Amino acid sequence: MKGNVELIIDGKRLDGRKPLEMREVEMKVNVVRNADGSAYVRFGKTIAIAAVYGPTILLPKHLQEDKLLVKVRYSMLPFSVDERKSPGHDRRSIELSKVIKNALAPAIMLDEYPRAVLKVYVEIIQADGSTRVTGTNAASLALAMAGVPMKDLVTACSVGKINDTIVLDLNGIEDNNSQADMAFAMMPSKNRVTLWQMDGQLTKEEIKKMIKIASDACKKLYDMQKKAIRGAFK
Amino acid sequence: MMIEEYVREVLNKGRRIDGRRFDEYRKIIVEKDIIEKAEGSARVKLGNTEVIAGVKLNVLKPFPDTPEEGVLIVNAEFLPIAHEEYEPGPPGEDEIELARVVDRAIRESKAIKLEELCIEPSEKVWGVFIDITVINDDGNLMDAACLAATAALEVTKIPKYEEDKIIRGEYQGKLPLRAKPVIVTVAKYGRRFLVDLKKEEEEIIDTKVSIGVFDGKVCAIQKQGQGYISLRDIETILELALRKSQELKKVI
Amino acid sequence: MIRKIVLPGEYLEEQRGRKLGTGVYKEGTKVFSAVLGTPKISDTEISVIPLAGKYIPKVNNMVIGVIKDVEITGWVVDINAPYMAYLPLSEGVKEFVDIKKVDLSQFYDIGDWIYCQIFKVPRNKIVQLSMKAENARKLEGGVIVKITPYKIPRLIGKGGSMIKIISEKTKTTIIPGQNGLVWVKGKDVEKAIKAIELIEKESYIYGLTEKVTRLLEK
Lengths: 234, 252, 218
What we know:
The complex is a heterotrimer of chains A (234), B (252) and C (218). Chain A has a single domain, classed as GHMP Kinase, N-terminal domain (Ribosomal Protein S5, domain 2). Chain A has 4 helices and 11 strands. Chain A has helices at 91-104, 131-145, 172-176, 204-230, and strands at residues 8-9, 12-13, 25-29, 37-43, 46-57, 69-76, 116-126, 155-162, 165-168, 180-187, 192-202. In chain A, the strands form 3 sheets. Chain A has a 5-stranded mixed β-sheet with strand order 3-4-5-7-6. The longest helix of chain A is centred in the C-terminal third of the chain and has 27 residues, at 204-230. The termini of chain A are far apart. Chain B has 252 residues and is α+β, with helices and mostly antiparallel strands. In chain B, strands 1, 2, 3, 4, 5 and 6 form a 6-stranded mixed β-sheet that branches. In chain B, strands 10-9-11-12 form a 4-stranded antiparallel β-sheet, sandwiched between helices. Chain B is elongated and about 65 Å long. Chain C is an alpha+beta fold and 218 residues long. In chain C, α3 runs antiparallel to α4. Chain C is flat, with a radius of gyration of 20 Å.
């Protein structure tokens, strides 16, 4: 049963972190030469590469709308997990692709490129929890590098509850044994929430507390995103 | 005037096209046990939205990490009869999202006592298959789907199982349940918060948050659509969802 | 020394009655950057010059395109944009052409490069092109280089100074399309391309002209 595994011992998590401590974070841009924009983001052992192509011509024509069509594909590579994951688009990745699209779209100025398409790919190279938020951070960096007009960057992190304690940035074992886990993304300089998912059991007060922790963490991640982009121009 | 503009104009005046308050559901009708062949079933009408959920039970091998627990599988299909835009074919992202959010509300509230569904550890457990089908889409499929699934589970019976065979039509008892989760989807339009969107309203409102609720606690959250909510909206949304969940629970 | 770089969402300044140029948006009276780029703020205008991004076709822009298809009454042209472009016969050829008798490929054939002007960007986004502009022409021979469209003004330089230096030092003709395609033909094409690529890569540094001059004199 979930919640029975001991994940916090003497106030420390199994990987040595304090409850509200992020794993080591690494961010790089321009990691895929052919893409219009690309980025690499690592949260501990979770590694995501995102690449953006476009805006480009959208065909067939009947799909064209008065605003830019954003297509997102999230996928976890076969070797990214303990047991080989068969390649291809399963139900989970279809849902997550949609959720990530809805996390990015509010920031993108869709009216700038009507009738065109923007393709965003998020590849999870290695998975150890919090893959969708790691991927969202990478996608946001890739969009900025591709010169896509946006109102803000999008910054994401996860919060959860393990052994009755609220923790930031769940790793794989914590994710699998959590009492609740929440994925969260925001436009950090506008305080606008663009991704919000939760499964588990929480009270309203707990949720409010977790949102505060997540939004504070996003502000710190936002500084790292800015640093990563500026680092490419030296 | 295009219908979209009309809906917008009415909303901007602080009203809704069918005269409801912003926090008011349409008339809800729940009929249980409508399909004799299913182990459990329910039809939910939410205004003109109609959803049928059927529950079937099968014996299968448990997952290796939960060798003594039954298995829950939720699936959703927007039937091509339900709307002119729906086509037959493999499930699309909207169907998958709906099924997965309803799955989470049921799973995380521990609505079904899956630990009581073991027949032979590591070998045989009951698999509970909930199939949600949309008969007519007039908006707010998420709330209707969860209502139908929860209502169908309420009347689900476990078939007799003798000599490795399921005897269909004969039952050994009721499916053991512990919670009645419901989903309240709150939409944001400008500074207003609405529940139970009609299809025409969904066409123009693209920011929604579905909140799964049981016993005053939250068991699932899913922000949907290409819009955003402000940090300060979170409390308002949760309060509205918790309040409306009381009403939905009474209907089941 | 590098120029200041701003990111999408970063606050620039109060608008204070100034015109908003490219790469910015406002909320209330506050102006923010919409793109990754270098801010250009004056007494009359606030804008951000993007460091990357796809070309958005604008009326009167001079662009370089390649013929993709020859149709009965015109040509389909790829102009390195998220939209296809069309050169109608009436805008492509000055003299009267009897389409019953003449195959239009004798004017422009598939694979031909042209330097042309955008005369209309309709709502359906099939960009309408014209060869009627004074310097519009078919580009015979030469090499096409692709750079970020927003860096074309850097390539041209103040009053055409940058492009003139490259042209003179490499004895080449250089035609920059506002859609990010640059046509180069002449003696030291290789060196000219190196200079163009340097501008593409380091458009955000100060003293770019000196750096380009040094490269050309090597």
